[in-house]
Specification:
mainly beta; nine-stranded mixed sheet; 1 helix; 10% helix
């Protein structure tokens, strides 16, 4: 919950960014406004690509957003010519180690797009190339490189989405590795929009002047 307006930087588009957040190479972050970025969030703009955030997005504490990196060439003899290593977890799960270094001269980073009215819970690591609008991501989630989450999805707490996985719209997802465990009604998008607008309004009201 907010404590004081002095703990936040308020942008011209009425987004609130915690002063303890780290926005690396801030010009690469493009926000449509009225979003909240909470404490100890790290957004890696130093990879040289844009990170786009829609309106009424809420990013909770200790989230890290890192662009995916792919080789420029498919030649495995070149540095960066094969995919970066990702560790494997036990019992068929996916591990948590992804290289955080910016791309080499033989690699390139991919832009990150986060749609409007989306919420990301605490202690998540996001490498996805695209997260749609009206998405709910729970706490302690790991979303691996080149993955894509379409609109109107719920990613439950402690879920790990493997590299290159595509989550279709209106999906409920859980597990490590992630699996689709249900579907959402088409009306959920309207509910998610209203929820995000109300939460932002309440956040600003609680901060006061």
């Amino acid at each position: 919950m907010p404590t004081s307006k002095s703990n936040y930087i308020v942008t011209a588009s009425q987004s609130y960014i915690s002063r303890s957040a780290s926005i690396l190479v801030a010009p690469n972050l493009h926000s449509k406004g009225k979003s909240v970025i909470q404490k100890n969030v790290t957004i890696h703009g130093e990879f040289g690509v844009s990170i786009h955030i829609g309106r009424y997005v809420y990013i909770d504490d200790d989230v890290e957003i890192v662009p995916s990196v792919i080789p420029v060439s498919s030649d495995p003899l070149l540095e960066g010519g094969s995919s970066r290593n990702i560790s494997s977890g036990g019992s068929g799960g996916v591990g948590s180690n992804v290289m955080l270094q910016p791309p080499t001269e033989n690699e390139k980073a991919l832009p990150v797009i986060i749609g409007s009215h989306t919420k990301i819970g605490k202690n998540c690591t996001i490498h996805s190339i695209s997260i749609g609008s009206c998405v709910r991501i729970g706490s302690n989630c790991r979303i691996f490189p080149r993955s894509k989450i379409h609109d109107c999805c719920i990613i439950e707490n402690d879920t790990t989405i493997p590299s290159d996985m595509v989550i279709p719209p209106f999906s409920r997802v859980r597990g490590n590795p992630a699996r689709i465990v249900g579907s959402l009604p088409e009306c959920c998008g309207v509910e998610f929009v209203e929820d995000c607008v109300q939460e932002y309004t309440g956040f600003v009201r609680e901060l006061g002047d």
